[in-house]
Specification:
heterodimer, A: alpha+beta, Cytochrome-c3 Hydrogenase, chain B, four-stranded mixed β-sheet, three-stranded antiparallel β-sheet, B: alpha/beta, Rossmann fold, 2 domains, 10 helices, 4 strands
């Protein structure tokens, strides 16, 4: 009878350290395990005692790929605790910075981390020769995201310009025009990306899943809204603990979460499953062309969802710059009224729902901090998806099954070092 | 022969590795000049024979000590990249508490499943040959260091403070705005990008070699601060500077 022994130590082309273990003996599944071995980092402990002005600077260091998301969730938590409402100018600049992060992060995943599986290579480096046009297209798109963050935020990783209460820099008129031009130029590259995905066959797989994302009646939600579940509807931000229910498992240094089912998923696919109707025109057209419609329970389609969202964000960026160009922007005097209190900040990081929750004392020092990252929330669902995937594909060879398992985990674009914050 | 290069990640956000991948325009040339044999975040191919090991992240577990010694035994050149690897970085903020307390605070009753040791820079575990500082590293600096290694030179390590570069950048001094900043004592090479970007210098590139005798120290004195005072105030990246290892 068949025997399968898959033991992927330190899965490659994902952010952070995780192992995939699959053991099948006599045709019976004996073990399927998604193991997180990343070093625990203790940010919630390190945040204790920090003064308010340091907090988002430290929180940013949870993640090098989605530092803007961590900064924004952190600032929103601090601002909620102090009762601060940033100006429209700051809100728009933060949102534009966010456009940069979504484009960079999604294109990094699609073209550098996931693409080698689709083109049967071990990494993007040999593809620079064999599929040069495709890779250079991906690098151009990724660079656009970085350029937006550099020009608006100061740099692409851990940008310096967002501060508690507002935004510390005002971009020049010509810089905004330049970025708008770059965003428009990216549309043909994105059309080519859609075309490329149309020609691909992603693995067939489906498992009933609860999808959770921010939701806002006014927009496709990335930075503000309430928490929405495809199974249970809307919940207020400060009710997040009822959703996340974090728990520890011995084989993972990252915490897992569960809501009404055994696990749930967050990320691009979860957002589209909750907010499909609010996608911008070109993004919705791409979703239709790529056969993505709610509710899609194939996690491999998260790749497609990221392509669709990148198009949405390019359209959003062009529009945001139009709105900024119509404003008279000026450097703002930011006053921070420090007081004791609690605040919750929730954003959609590229990989999904990200929560920072802080309690401050009356001197503005953190007494208690809690962070729940997207990959924390996805680990449980990855585990259950792996179990179902192995079950559905027991007829495959060991090598085929290993690649499928690896591709499944990569489809979530996990940020494991975020999840062991 | 192209040098064989490996990139490794330890306790960190992997942002410095991402900076390597952010060399979008330079990537074809980098791949042509270097034989990248191991880079887990970006590639599945793997080879244990390498000349240069770039290391991202601090060391914060016993298992990482073992891994670092293996890398040292294999590599001709070990180069930590980024504040976590060069200084211990933000990870060291946990070191002021006992590791039991840290584990309990994070994991509660489940703490018994996990392990951690006080965070430390790579140089506290194995000898290093050079380092590229910053949180994150500056990608132009990474490329320059690679070019100098390829040319057979010892790469240049900036030794003037951020303050000097900040003046060149034409920024209004943070101290003149009534705030404080680590610029006078921090190693330059970043073109003072944090002050230009609207913030202050947080000292992510570590101290210059002789912070007590440099010409920018008078800025601190005018503000009534000593090097010790300001380091205490800004421990974000430099908490390890005072820790002695067991």
């Amino acid at each position: 009878m068949r025997k399968i022994d898959i033991n992927v130590r330190q899965l490659t082309r994902v952010e952070g350290h995780g192992n995939i273990i699959v053991r099948v003996s006599n045709g019976r599944i004996e073990e399927v395990k998604w193991e997180i071995t990343e070093s625990p980092r203790f940010f919630e402990v390190m945040l204790r005692g920090r003064p308010w002005h340091d907090v988002h600077v430290l929180a940013s260091r949870i993640c090098g790929i989605c530092s803007v998301s961590h900064q924004l969730a952190s600032l929103q938590a601090t601002e909620a605790a102090f009762g601060i409402q940033p100006s429209e100018q700051s809100t728009l600049l933060r949102r534009l910075l966010y456009v940069g992060e979504i484009i960079e992060s999604h294109m990094l995943h699609i073209y550098l981390l996931a693409l080698p599986d689709l083109l049967h290579a071990g990494s993007v480096f040999p593809l620079l020769h064999s599929s040069k046009d495709i890779v250079l297209r991906g690098l151009r798109l990724k660079k656009l995201g970085n350029e937006i963050m550099e020009i608006i935020g100061g740099r692409s990783i851990h940008p310096q310009a967002i501060v508690v209460g507002g935004f510390a820099r005002v971009p020049r008129h010509q810089d905004l025009l330049y970025l708008q031009g770059r965003l428009k130029e990216a549309l043909p590259d994105l059309e080519a990306t859609v075309e490329f995905f149309r020609g691909l066959e992603l693995p067939e797989f489906s498992r009933q899943t609860e999808y959770i994302a921010l939701k806002n009646p006014e927009e496709y939600a990335f930075v503000r809204g309430s928490i929405s579940s495809t199974d249970t509807g809307i919940a207020a931000l400060d009710q997040y603990l009822d959703i996340t229910n974090e728990y520890c498992v011995p084989h993972s240094t990252a915490k897992f979460t569960r809501h009404v089912l055994e696990s749930y998923a967050v990320g691009a696919l979860a957002r589209i499953n909750n907010n499909y109707e609010q996608l911008n025109t070109l993004a919705k057209k791409a979703a239709n062309e790529l056969g993505l419609e709610p509710i899609c329970c194939n996690p491999f389609m998260n790749n497609v969802a990221q392509v669709v969202e990148t198009i949405h964000e390019v359209e959003e960026g062009i529009d945001l710059i139009n709105r900024l160009l119509r404003m008279v922007m000026q450097e703002e005097d930011i006053v921070v009224p420090v007081k004791a209190g609690q605040g919750v900040g929730v954003v959609e990081a590229p990989r999904g729902l990200l929560i920072h929750d802080y309690t401050y004392d009356n001197k503005g020092h953190i007494v208690r901090a809690n962070c729940v990252t997207p990959s924390n929330q996805n680990h449980g669902n990855i585990q259950h998806n792996l179990e179902a995937l192995v079950h559905q594909h027991l007829d495959k060879s060991e090598n085929e099954l290993r690649l499928l398992c690896e591709m499944l985990v990569r489809a979530y674009d996990p940020c494991i070092s975020c999840s062991t914050h | 022969m192209k040098p064989k290069v490996a990139v490794f990640d330890f306790t960190c956000c992997e942002g410095c590795e991402l900076q390597i991948l952010n060399c979008e325009e330079e990537m074809p040339d980098l791949v042509a000049a270097l034989d990248i044999v191991t880079f887990r975040e970006a590639m599945t191919e793997h080879n244990d024979y390498y000349d240069i090991a770039f290391i991202d992240g601090a060391c914060s577990r016993e298992s990482e000590v073992v891994r670092l010694k293996e890398i040292r035994a294999r590599a001709k050149m070990v180069i930590p990249i980024g504040a976590c690897a060069c200084l211990g970085g933000v990870n060291c903020l946990k070191n002021s508490r006992s590791m039991d307390e840290v584990l309990k605070a994070e994991y509660g009753d489940a703490a018994r499943y996990y392990d951690t040791i006080p965070a430390r820079p790579i140089s506290a575990v194995i000898p290093i040959d050079f380092f590229i500082p910053g949180c994150p590293i500056v990608k132009e600096e990474f490329i320059r260091v690679v070019q100098e290694i390829l040319a057979g030179r010892t790469p240049y390590q900036p030794s003037t403070p951020v303050c000097a570069e900040c003046k060149m950048a034409g920024n209004v001094c943070v101290f003149d705005k009534g705030m404080t900043c680590l610029g006078p004592v921090t190693r330059g090479g970043c073109q003072a990008s944090c002050v230009t970007g609207g913030a202050v210098c947080w000292g992510c590139r570590g101290l210059i070699d002789e912070p007590n005798v440099n010409s920018e120290k008078e800025i601190l004195e005018k503000a009534g601060l000593s090097v010790g005072d300001i380091l205490k105030k800004f421990d974000l990246f430099n908490a390890c500077q005072e820790v002695t290892w067991k």
